[in-house]
Amino acid sequence: MGAHAAAHAGGHDSPPELRHHFVDLPAQREASTLGMWAFLVTEVLFFGGMFTAYVIYRATYRTAFEGASNLLDIKLGAFNTAVLIMSSLTMALAVWASSLGRKNLIILFLILTILLGGIFLGVKVIEYKQKFEHHEVPGPHFVVPLNEKTHQPLPPQSEMFFSLYFCMTGLHALHMIIGIGLLTWLIVKARRGAFTTRYNTPVDMVGLYWHFVDVVWIFLFPLLYLLGRHTL
After folding, report:
1. 3-state helix, strand, coil in the chain (%, to 5)
2. How many whole angstroms separate alpha carbon 20 and alpha carbon 94?
3. How far apart are alpha carbons 108 and 86 in whole angstroms?
4. 214: which of 12, 80, 120, 230 is 20 to 30 A away, CA to CA?
5. CATH superfamily name and code, 20-231
């Protein structure tokens, strides 16, 4: 009972960011990092299932998948790749600024990251719009596209390519939207002075999430846009 009272009394000297079930801030940060990595492992498994399905179907229906891949706008895909790489840089700079307790810099780099994320999503909207206009969206209105070089209809399995394309890029875009929501939350907390040299764990954790989403796209871009282009 005396030990409990002493611990409770000592709690008055604890930093406000420290949760009651942790001994100190380093222990709290370690637990947060472990939890985030555990979450990202489940995300790898989640995306891994779709990547596996794509690789298997692409190997089975190579002609259809390569022909359909050539119908994607490689310039927009490459532009979006550059945008996400830049967003990873600004996110890393936000983490750096938070480690120094530089409030204004944190907010600046978070806003830049949001703007880059918004540009990425805007480009995806343009790409999706193109697919709707060309009736390349899987469903009752899907029209089997023509091979760009031979001008002959692609195999009907090309619809499967676009099904995976929309599933994979759509899920990635959803993660981007969630990430932008988290970045907005960080900006609100940063404006209140929540992050200091002693405590910047939320910025670090959201940074890990954002980098993961960027890495997923680094794999999506070559799989969907690049593979097989030289063979057709």
Report:
1. 75, 0, 25
2. 28
3. 14
4. 230
5. Cytochrome c oxidase, subunit III, four-helix bundle (1.20.120.80)
User: What integer pLDDT is reported at residue 14 of this predicted model?
Assistant: 65
**Nearest C-alpha neighbor of 122 from the set 152, 164, 79:** 79
**Helix, strand, or coil (residue 146):** strand
Q: Tokens representing 195?
A: 């992050």
Is there a contact between 106 and 203 (Cβ–Cβ < 8 Å)? yes
Domain residues of the chain, as ranges? 20-231
Flag residues of the chain having pLDDT under 70. Answer: 1-29, 31-32, 229-232
The pLDDT of residue 230 is 56
- Confidence at residue 147, expressed as pLDDT on a 0 to 100 scale: 81
The predicted structure's pLDDT at residue 193: 87
Render pLDDT for 140-194 as a digit per residue (tens, 0 to 9): 888 888 887 777 888 899 999 999 999 999 999 999 999 999 999 999 999 998 8
CA atoms within 13 A of residue 130's CA, in its CB half-sphere: 12
Cα distance between residue 103 and residue 207, in whole Å: 16
Write out the two tokens for 54: 């794509």
Half-sphere exposure of 185 (CA within 13 A, CB side): 11
Q: Which residues pair with 146 in a beta bridge?
A: 153
Q: What does pTM read for this prediction?
A: 0.85
Contact 232, 67 (CB under 8 A): yes
Query: What sign does the dihedral 121-126-130-133 (CA atoms) show?
Result: positive
